Task: structure prediction
Amino acid sequence: MSPHDVQEAVRQTYQAYLTRHGLKSTVQREIIIKRFVKSRGHLSADELYAALREEHPSIGLATIYRTLKILTEAGIAREQRFNDGFTRYEFNGPDDRHHDHLVCTACGRVEEFENREIERLQEEVANIHGFAINDHKLELYGLCPDCARSGRNVG
Amino acid sequence: MSPHDVQEAVRQTYQAYLTRHGLKSTVQREIIIKRFVKSRGHLSADELYAALREEHPSIGLATIYRTLKILTEAGIAREQRFNDGFTRYEFNGPDDRHHDHLVCTACGRVEEFENREIERLQEEVANIHGFAINDHKLELYGLCPDCARSGRNVG
DNA sequence: TTCGGTGCAAACTTTTTGCAGAGTA
DNA sequence: TACTCTGCAAAAAGTTTGCACCGAA
Result:
C-alpha cells in the first residue's frame, strides 16, 4: 500500500467513525491526524504536541489527547504503555498486523517484530490456564546495536 | 522452602541491604514488609496502605512507597506496570525465577507462568535485531476461567 | 440554528519530595 | 548525639474535565 493509499484508507475509517458517532470534522483534528499518520512512530501526546507547536501553536494539548482517544477508538491508533511512565500512541495502519516491541533502554528507540511461533506458544499457555486471551503485550528491553557499541546505558 | 524460611531469608536480605546503605530498621518498615511478604500477590501501594490501615492507621502512604522502593532495590520486590494505570509490587522470593503474567481483564486476577521455549525465541528475536536484552515483559490479557464462565467482562 | 469542538485552566490520579518533629543506632 | 525516618501536606507529572466561546453541518 502506498503512503497515499494509507492516508486515504485512514481518512475513510476516520470519517466513518465520525458519522457513526455523530461527531464533526475540524481543522485541528485534520492537522493532528495527518501529522500522526505521517510520523509512524510511537508518539506520546506531549511529543505530538511539541511537533505541532511550531506550525500550529494554537492547538492545545487537551485537543491532542481528545483526538488520540478518537483515533484509538476508531482503531487507527493503539495505546502502548512502556516502562517510561507515559502513554504512547502507535499508528495502526489498515494493513498492519499485530507485532511486539524491542525497546532500547538507553536511547528510547522502539523496533517492532512479529513472531508467529511465540504467539502460538502464548495461546498454548493460555489454554493450559483456562484463560480466553484477547490481547497481549510483549516487550524486550535492552540496548540497541548503536547504544551497545558506544557503551551508552542511560536515556 | 517453608514460609518461615522464606520470611527468614527475606529478613536477612533486607538487613544486609540496610547495613550496606547505612539505613535503619523501624517498626513501620517491619510491619509493611511482613504484610507484603505474607500476601504474595501483586499489590499496589494503595492496596497495601488499605490493608494496613485498620490495624495500623498511623502508617502513611508515603512510608509505604518509600519502603517498597527499598524492597525493590534490595531485590525483594519487583515493580510491575500492567495496563490499569498504577504500579504493582510483586514479591520476589529467594527461590523465585523469572516468570510472566496472565491478567484477567474482568476481575484483575493475576496468574504467573513460565515458559522456557518462549524465552528462547525472545533471545533469538533479539539477536536478529542486534539488541542486548536485559529484561522483558510478557503479559497475556483476557478472561480468567471464572469470569469467562459467568460472562463477566468488566472490572 | 443546533450541537459538538476548542483552548484554557482547574481538577484528578498516582507517585515523589520538603519539612519539622520522632526514633534508631 | 547524629542521623535517618515518619507523617503530613504540597508538589510533580501525565491525563482528564468544566466552561464559555467558536465553528461545522
